[in-house]
Structure formats: structure tokens, C-alpha cells
Specification:
52% strand, mainly beta, 11 strands, 115 residues, single chain, seven-stranded mixed sheet
């Protein structure tokens, strides 16, 4: 099992930037595929981006070109760099780790994009 803790959420103006972090308790997170999801009020949780153990990345079309997912396996941390933020990016952002034993979720961090 692995425990995940997100941080970095904040209130930001449209066009601004934020970097989210997801710290993993596992001594070795290289075996996990890691991802970010988000859930806006009253809506279902949506996939945002994934990074595999080899470094390959995938993005939802809505964030492609604005968000960058990365991981530092030595520090057991995953990041989501977000730029050109829009009000529709407002949501609770969750990180997820997946391996053959299952999916593990963090508690979420709130991102609000507003004037």
C-alpha cells in the first residue's frame, strides 16, 4: 500500500499558475503509474494526466499544452505544473497511484481560479 498527500492548492486569478505536489509514503514509487484527477462541485471526478514509471505522459485534451505532469522518484513526489489557468479548472485535485495491487488516492487539494 501507499499513502498519498496532495498540497499546493490555492486561489489564483485567471491566467495564473500553480504547482501541485503529491507526496507518496512508499519507499519506492517507481512501480506505480501516477495520475492526477479533478472533481468540480456537483460533477464526477475526471482524469487530468498520467505519468508512467518510465516517464511517459498522457493528458486530457482540456489541459494539454497548459499542464505538465512530472515525478521525482528519488523524492517520492509527483507534480502538476499548471499555467494559463481558467475558471473551469476550479476543482478539488486528487492524485492516484496504481499498481498490480490496486488504486490508491490522496485526500485532495482545492484549486480555485477566480477574479
Amino acid at each position: 500500500q501507499v499513502q498519498l498527500v496532495e498540497s499546493g492548492g490555492d486561489l489564483v486569478h485567471p491566467g495564473g499558475s500553480l504547482r501541485l505536489s503529491c507526496a507518496a509514503s512508499s519507499r519506492d514509487m517507481t512501480s506505480y503509474a501516477m495520475g492526477w484527477y479533478r472533481q468540480a462541485p456537483g460533477k464526477q471526478r475526471w482524469w487530468v494526466a498520467t505519468i508512467f514509471s518510465g516517464g511517459q505522459t498522457n493528458y486530457a485534451d482540456s489541459v494539454k499544452g497548459r499542464f505538465t505532469i512530472s515525478r521525482d522518484n528519488g523524492k517520492n513526489v509527483m507534480y502538476l505544473q499548471m499555467k494559463l489557468l481558467k475558471p473551469e479548472d476550479t476543482a478539488v485535485y486528487y492524485c492516484k497511484a496504481s499498481d498490480r495491487t490496486g488504486d490508491y488516492w490522496g485526500q485532495g487539494t482545492q484549486v480555485t481560479v477566480s477574479t
